[in-house]
């Protein structure tokens, strides 16, 4: 009798696992579009941005034609990318990311910040070779790489700042403390009267970004927590922390906002359940 019960439980578990794997495979080939509207009196002219992150060399259709088509349908004023377009592994070509940035940059203004994969391939060249150099050199004429730099959209009174933080802030298992002074020293002085968008790949430091003065933070990195459970939310972050506080959606701190995308791809465990790859559409409007 006990053997029969154990057998039934094992069979049920295998069926559930197979169902989850099938669903994950299905979701990894889908695209979702999420819309966010934000109003602020400093915005002189309404603007629409398409925001993506964590491509990790993923392809939607031949040479990402499906992804590009979806972005064209949005007809954004600019495309904002919060890092990790590549996979930071030895001998993994950045060709997919280069092709996408060149195509998007031929159609729209593109502003992009580094993620941890771009950071480490540029920092540890003895391990990763020329991956970062190839990516940057072949896309710099198509995309504005904001590496602790800013760009100002004068007609809209909007400034976009790209953040590139130290490797210590991407360590697994524990959260390295970040002080606001670190950002003050790292980033250019922002215009107090402008609406500031901060492209910051790691969302864990949202309260620090808000204290620094970012009006809107755009982040990725967490991949939506891979599996999103009802009530509990995202299950695990790339920092190997269970049920991360920030995993996907819009958050608020100090009257500042953060939009955290579930991302487009993966690099080690390409696992998604209730967490479709995502393009975020951000509508900025004056009050």
TrEMBL record:
SUPFAM superfamilies: Metallo-dependent phosphatases. Pfam families: Metallophos. InterPro entries: Calcineurin-like_PHP, Metallo-depent_PP-like, Metallophosphoesterase_sf. Residues 48-224 form the Calcineurin-like phosphoesterase domain. Keywords: Hydrolase, Membrane, Metal-binding, Transmembrane, Transmembrane helix. The chain crosses the membrane at residues 6-22. This is Metallophosphoesterase. It comes from Coprococcus ammoniilyticus.
């Amino acid at each position: 009798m006990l053997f029969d019960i154990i057998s039934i439980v094992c069979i049920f578990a295998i069926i559930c696992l197979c169902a989850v794997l099938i669903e994950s495979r299905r979701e990894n080939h889908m695209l979702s579009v999420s819309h966010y509207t934000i109003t602020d009196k400093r915005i002189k002219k309404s603007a629409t941005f398409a925001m993506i992150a964590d491509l990790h060399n993923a392809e939607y259709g031949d040479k990402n034609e499906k992804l590009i088509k979806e972005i064209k349908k949005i007809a954004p004023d600019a495309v904002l990318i919060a890092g990790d377009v590549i996979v930071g592994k030895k001998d993994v070509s950045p060709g997919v990311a280069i092709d996408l940035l060149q195509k998007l940059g031929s159609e729209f203004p593109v502003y992009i910040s580094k993620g941890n994969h771009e950071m480490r391939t540029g920092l540890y060249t003895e391990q990763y070779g020329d991956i970062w150099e190839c990516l940057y050199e072949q896309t710099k004429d198509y995309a504005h790489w904001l590496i602790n730099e800013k760009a100002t959209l004068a007609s809209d009174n909007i400034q976009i700042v790209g953040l590139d933080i130290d490797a210590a802030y991407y360590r697994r298992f524990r959260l390295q403390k970040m002080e606001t002074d670190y950002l003050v020293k790292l980033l250019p002085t922002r215009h107090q009267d402008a609406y500031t968008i901060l492209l910051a790949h790691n969302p864990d430091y949202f309260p620090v970004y808000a204290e620094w003065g970012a009006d809107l933070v755009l982040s990725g990195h967490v991949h939506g927590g891979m599996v999103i459970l009802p009530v509990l939310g995202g299950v695990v972050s790339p920092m190997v922390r269970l049920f991360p506080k920030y995993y996907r959606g819009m958050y608020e701190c100090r009257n500042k906002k953060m939009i955290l995308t579930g991302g487009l791809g993966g690099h080690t465990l390409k696992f998604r359940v209730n967490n479709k790859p995502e393009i975020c559409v951000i509508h900025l409007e004056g009050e």
